[in-house]
Amino acid sequence: MTGRRERTKAANRAALVAAARDAFGELGFEAAGVRDIVRRTGLASGTFYNYFPDKDAVFRALVEESGVEARRRVRAARRSARTAEDFVEGGYRAFFAFIVEDPARFAFMRTNLETVRNRFGDAVLPAGTEELAEDLRAAIDAGHVPPVDVEYCAHAMIAVALELGSRLAERTPPDVDGATEFASALFLGALERRAVAVR
Predict the structure, then answer these.
(1) How many separate domains does the chain show?
(2) Which of 59, 22, 61 is nearest to 40 (CA)?
(3) DSSP category for residue 29
(4) Are 150 and 196 in contact (CB under 8 A)?
């Protein structure tokens, strides 16, 4: 009985999260309300409040869940890298591809990038920056990336990822290759100059 109840709770929460992603993707954070979310699930209207206190909470859950998966993929790409080019290009490509691969997630991100950045950035940015700094240190120690100011580099790389992510989302079709090539050239050029400077 407990197992069935837990499965039902998990299914209800997943349905609400998926419906919220669709509602926010279609209407945007400001325009979408709890009613718009519940209407897409077939659940009773009060069910929402068994899982989330308000629309901010379900929006945050969406951002956090997307952030966890994006960081997992990006870290896998960076950790398998054996050159600076693989480290930079692989990480950017994994991030940009993640943004566009799922149409519902892409619509959510495209419609709500400013909201994510301005109101919910604390849900993903610190963890992503800390993980990138950790991966940069490991790549430097392994000799794959020349020594750099890790804090500056991590913050700059994250900022470029977010800005280009929002720009590629506005293009039709989304330009993963162009964004990857631009960001990679930018940072690989800087790393190459840094490598020359420390020789």
Answers:
(1) 1
(2) 22
(3) T
(4) no
Q: CATH number, domain at 181?
A: 1.10.357.10
The answer to whether residue 170 sits within a structural domain is yes
Q: Would you say 67 and 124 are in contact if contact means Cβ atoms under 8 Å apart?
A: yes
- In a domain, residue 46? The reply is no
Radius of gyration of the chain (CA): 19
Structure-block tokens of residue 193: 């100059």
Does 84 reside within a domain?
A: yes
- pLDDT tens by residue, the chain, 199 residues: 568 889 999 999 999 999 999 999 999 999 999 999 999 999 998 999 999 999 999 999 999 999 999 999 999 999 999 999 999 999 999 999 999 999 898 889 889 988 988 888 887 788 899 999 999 999 999 999 999 999 999 999 999 998 888 888 778 888 999 999 999 999 999 888 876 565 4
Name the residue range of residue 132's domain: 60-197
Q: Which pTM does this prediction carry?
A: 0.86
Residue 1 lies in a domain: no
Helix (H, G, I), strand (E, B) or coil at 182: helix
Size of the chain, expressed as the number of residues it contains? 199
**Measured distance CA(166)–CA(180) in Å, rounded:** 13
Token pair of 63, please?
């951002």
Q: DSSP label at 122?
A: G
Q: Contact, 150 vs 158, CB < 8 A?
A: no
